[in-house]
Structures are given as C-alpha cells and as structure tokens.
Specification:
- This protein is α+β, with helices and mostly antiparallel strands.
- It has 2 domains: about 90 residues, Protein of unknown function (DUF541), domain 1 (Translation Initiation Factor IF3); about 100 residues, 2-Layer Sandwich (Alpha-Beta Plaits).
- It contains 3 helices and 9 strands; from the N terminus they run βββαββαβαβββ.
- Strands 4-5-3-6-8 form a 5-stranded antiparallel β-sheet. Strands 1-2-9-7 form a 4-stranded mixed β-sheet, with helices on one face.
- The protein is elongated.
- The two termini are about 15 Å apart.
C-alpha cells in the first residue's frame, strides 16, 4: 500500500526580518512538503541624494523673491560648473511667508521670507563632496543633508528571492531525506519582498564650511552603507 505522507516544516533564516504582509493560508497536500524561508541581498547604493533649502528674508516680498531667485541661479551655475544639468534638481516646496512681530498687542508685519526645498540626485559619487562644499558656501542655503539610496531595485529583489528560494529548497531536501523520500518538483510558491530604502544619511543639517576649506569633506573616503533587501518565500514541493 502506498504510504501517504504530509510534512509541514517552517524554516526561518537566522537573521530573518519581520514582514508586514499577511502570509497566505496554504494547506499542504499528501506527499508534499511545505517550507518557508527568508533570504537577503545587500546592494551598494547607486544614487546620492543631496537635499538643501534656499531661504531669503527681506523687508519687502519682492526683494525676498529677487534674492531667492538670485540664489537659485547661483545653484544652477554651481551645478553647471560640476557638469550637472540643472534639470536634475527638483523643487519639492516653494513658499512666500509674511513675518510678524508679536511683541506688542497688535501683530506688525516686519518682513517676508521666501524659501524653497531642493533635491538633487547624483549617480557620480565623486561629485558629492565638491558640490556640497559649494552649496554650503552660499549665504542663503541651509539644512543640507546627504544620503544614499538604491533606485535600481528590481535586480536586488530578484537576488533576495533567489536566496530565499535556495534556503527553502535546502530545508525541503533535508526533510525529504530525513523521511526516506526524494524531493520532487515545486508545486506552489508565494513571495514577499521588503526593501530598506530609506536614505542612508551621511550628514544632517550640515553647517557652512567656508572656514574649513582645508579639511576634507565629511563624506570623503567613506563607503556608503549597503542597502538590505529581504524576501520571504513559501513553497510546496512534491515528494517522490
């Protein structure tokens, strides 16, 4: 009489991470083995993200606007001098705000502030240090930060899935051999992926560095932190 075997095995990688996605409910059929595994792939970031703000405060709104416009043109010139097309920079916010003096009972309008948030993405990491230095020397630029991220995510996800599947198959093979059976073809699989793509910041709110030009930039000679991509695989294999 043919032996009917149903094996359920849940195998987690040693450094598994928690996933927010709901796991599918799967009923293992006779003569199958059901395994789960986590996989991981660490990728080098491919994009540096430079963020900063332009801010000008003047007594008149037109004067504040004109000064901010001059600063924006200065930013464009800095980019061109570093071989970067100004179209690569993105404006995330632009505002004109009245400034009031509340020291008396009645608020008094005293000035206007024009501000804009700018984000610049660079593929050439060698340009990060010089362009950050030049932005820092501007008297109306501030709140600078430099981070690194991974935009080419598909390849990293594929490698993480491959690692998770390899671990799942190794576990299924071990279960099959321990039960005196041989592992057959894959019958079912589901995959969840999770990418930790938040900016890996190298510096936050960097102060003007005009007085420190002889010192190396904070990001020089350091390697950007790797970005971890993880995958979870649920798989059912047939048993021979």
């Amino acid at each position: 009489m043919k032996l009917r075997i149903t094996v359920l095995a849940v195998v987690l990688a040693a450094a598994s991470l928690a996933f927010g996605q709901d796991r599918p409910t799967v009923n293992a059929q006779p003569n199958t083995v059901y395994v789960s595994a986590d996989g991981k792939f660490e990728a080098n970031p491919d994009t540096a993200v430079v963020q900063f703000s332009i801010s000008s405060q003047q007594n008149k709104s037109r004067d504040a606007y004109d000064r901010a416009s001059q600063a924006a043109e200065q930013v464009r010139q800095i980019m061109r001098s570093n071989g970067i097309d100004p179209k690569n920079a993105e404006i995330g916010a632009f505002s004109i705000q009245p400034i009031y003096d509340y020291s008396n009972a009645k608020a008094k309008l005293v000035a206007y502030r024009v501000s804009a948030d700018v984000t610049l993405k660079l593929k050439d990491f060698t340009k990060v240090a010089p362009i950050v230095q030049q932005f820092s020397d501007m008297d109306v630029a501030g709140n600078q930060s430099v981070g690194y991220t991974l935009e080419e995510m598909d390849s990293a996800k594929t490698k993480a899935v491959e690692d998770a599947y390899r671990r799942a198959r190794l576990s299924a093979t071990a279960i099959a051999q321990a039960s005196g059976r041989a592992l057959g073809d894959l019958s079912y699989a589901s995959v969840d992926t999770f990418e930790n793509v938040r900016l890996q910041a190298m510096g936050d709110r960097m102060q003007p560095m005009a007085a420190m030009k002889s010192a190396p930039a904070p990001t020089e000679e350091f390697t950007p932190q790797k970005i971890a991509v993880t995958a979870h695989v649920n798989a059912i294999f047939n048993l021979k």
